[in-house]
Amino acid sequence: MKIFADYHMHPQGHKLQPYTFKLLDPWAESCLQKGIVDFCFTDHDRYREGIDFKIFYQWKQKFPTLNVRLGIERDNDPVSGHSGLIWVKENWEKLDFVLGSVHFIGDWPFDRNGFEEGFSKRPIDDIYRDYVKNLLQLIDEGFIDSVAHLDLIKIFNYRPKGKIVDYFKPVLEKIKEKNLCLEINTAGWRKPVKEQYPDEEILFKAVEMKIPISIGSDAHSWVEVGKGFSELLPLMHKLGIREFAVFRSHSRQMVAVS
């Protein structure tokens, strides 16, 4: 069994880097080497100025054996989130796929190194509830295809007192209502929490609700493309996940794990 698609990749990483052949080439070459034949660039919306549609369309012609898609990850950044949403609306028809995510509670970037102290300033259950409120608001705004790293709030391994799945049931219900995908994100294994996003109990509930799954490595460097996919396969098998989503022009197609 093999996962051959990666729908969460950041060629610009964590800084504005306008699209060029030189920037994008290593990503395609890494995918070819790893047998990933269907992938989507999903840079953070704060770096949308680096996305050049013309360059991208020219560049992808170099790799005719690959299904290369263009997307974006939009979030609730208090500085760039609103303008990012406007950009996504304006460019919706040019994009294949949009991830929706929450990286902020108010102006607190809770998932960034150096900001962990915010978890000790309030009851952890309140933090989780506020995070969920932000997720629900983001989903209601629309213009997304899949919800990324659903329980990112656990990144530094701060856990709520109750069952984690109970906090996220309203979000799963909203995802189902809006006919969106839920992403399985392998980056959590590279973070202090040392597990995939979302939690296994959440995934079990999502499978029970028949919510479609997309898969992403959340690579911020081409060396991270597909990282954790082989480790993910046993969990997918355990949960009965036999297919995942790929996209073209926001049209979802479910494909079997090869």
Layout of helices and strands:
Elements: E1 5-9, H1 21-34, E2 38-44, H2 53-60, E3 67-74, H3 81-91, E4 97-100, H4 124-141, E5 146-147, H5 164-177, E6 181-185, H6 200-208, E7 213-216, H7 229-239, E8 243-248, E9 251-256
Parallel strand pairs: 1-2, 2-3, 3-4, 4-5, 5-6, 6-7
Antiparallel strand pairs: 8-9
Helix pairs in contact: 4-5, 5-6
Number of domains: 1
End-to-end separation in angstroms reads 5 Å
The gross shape turns out to be globular
> Beta-sheet strand percentage?
15-25%
Q: How large is the radius of gyration?
A: 17 Å
CATH topology type: TIM Barrel
Task: Give the SSE string.
Answer: EHEHEHEHEHEHEHEE
CATH class: Alpha Beta
Q: On the 0-100 scale, what is the average pLDDT?
A: 98
Name the CATH homologous superfamily: Metal-dependent hydrolases
Number of E strands? 9
Q: Can you name the CATH architecture?
A: Alpha-Beta Barrel
Q: Which stretches are poorly predicted, pLDDT < 50 over at least 5 residues?
A: none
Tell me roughly what share of residues is in helical segments. 25-40%
Content-based structural category:
alpha/beta
Total DSSP helices: 7
EC number: 3.1.3.15
Organism: Methylacidiphilum kamchatkense Kam1
Enzyme class: hydrolase
Pathway: Amino-acid biosynthesis; L-histidine biosynthesis; L-histidine from 5-phospho-alpha-D-ribose 1-diphosphate: step 8/9
